[in-house]
Amino acid sequence: MAVQSVSISSITSRLLPKNIDIAELHCCSCPIFRSKLSWLPVLPLRNRLRSHFVVVRSGLMASKSPAITKGQQDIAAIACKDLLIIGPGVLGKFVAELWMKEFPGCHVAGQTLTTDHHEELQSRGIKPLLRGKHNEQPFPFVVFSAPPSRSLDYGEELRLASQQWNGEGVFLFTSSSAVYDCMDNGDCNEDTPVVSLGHSPRTDVILRAEEEVLKVGGTIVRLAGLYTKDRGPHAYWVKKGVAECRGDHILNLIHYEDAASLCVTVLKGGYRGEIFLGCDNLPLSRQEMMDIVNESGKYEDKFQAFTVMDGALGKKMNCNRTRMMTGWQPRHMSFVEFIRDEV
Asked: Is the pLDDT of residue 20 over 60?
């Protein structure tokens, strides 16, 4: 049977009501809209909808199905943006907030291991789900931001999480920049090799989890040290007063809100099988961090000293490739600026 290349505009002008976003309809799981497009053998490239489709010539006949109403279009478009957050802690809640602002009316759910924070999730417009105790259908967008500390088999948790993704949209795992093989305060970016399996139990857990994500076409965002005013290493050390580690160890940071905005940018971009890095591009030493905290006068306690002079160092990270690819920029440009101007 003869085939020909037909532009989107020619198809939509003849067969679909005006103002329908065919990309939205293609990704939507709503059976009403799938039936409208089921005769189109669409062949997406790199999981993106391209500007042309290959269509069977005999299929270019006027559709006899009823016209799709504007209300149905709106419902379909909203359903295509439904989001499941597995492990909706501080980062996950920031992601949910930003996502709901981007796509008002979409369904956002948060899966937890216990019911301890379900009331809080509901108050934020997030539907709470208990792991293994719900019958929700797979979601087009899934973010896994649960830490490995509460799991006996973190890789298995990621494999199970991938089953709650319907293959549309993006499956995103928030990983850690700890896997990069740089421990001498040297330069590090997205292309820096990762440590080998066996380097440490911590990095083994993370790398095996990343493998599960990439197997299914998911995307990874490796994040530097997360912080707010009262969360992060500075908050712990200022309360403790003395820390048994090196003060010249270089740290890399990113505010929770900026980490969430990077995740949302990646979700909206539809990236598959990619690995991104999130940091503020302004590394500083542990000692510099605590000097800033003490000088700010914004904390009741005072940090005294780091007491260790040897041990592993850190890395000086930049995420320039991530920024170039996605267009993302942090709102909080640096830890110094945040403590000085925003706390």
From this structure: no
Please state, in angstroms and as integers, the Cα–Cα distance from residue 125 to each residue in 59, 107, 140, following that order: 43, 9, 18
- 185-to-56, 140, 164, 201, 233 alpha-carbon distances in Å: 59, 40, 39, 22, 18
108 with 96: CB under 8 angstroms?
Answer: yes
- Under 8 Å CB-to-CB from 159, ≥6 apart: which residues? 212
Q: What is the DSSP string of 200-238?
A: -HHHHHHHHHHHHHHHTT-EEEEE-EEE-SSSSHHHHHH
What digits encode the pLDDT tens for the residues 111-125? 999 999 999 999 999
For 69, 231, 247, 318, 343, the CA distances from 187, given in Å and listed in that order, are 55, 26, 18, 8, 29
Asked if pLDDT for residue 1 goes beyond 90, the answer is no
pLDDT top residue among 112 and 67: 112
Q: In the prediction, which pLDDT does 36 show?
A: 33
Q: How confident is the model at residue 26 (pLDDT cuts 50, 70, 90)?
A: very low
Cα-based distances in Å from 215 to 170, 272, 285: 13, 11, 36
Mean pLDDT over the full length of the chain = 84
Tokens standing for 326?
């996605």
Question: What pLDDT is attached to residue 69?
Answer: 63
Other CB atoms within 10 Å distance of the CB of residue 33: 25
Can you list the domains of the chain with their CATH numbers? 3-77 (no CATH), 81-342 (3.40.50.720)
DSSP state of 129: E
- Closest-CA residue to 221 (of 184, 258, 183, 181): 258
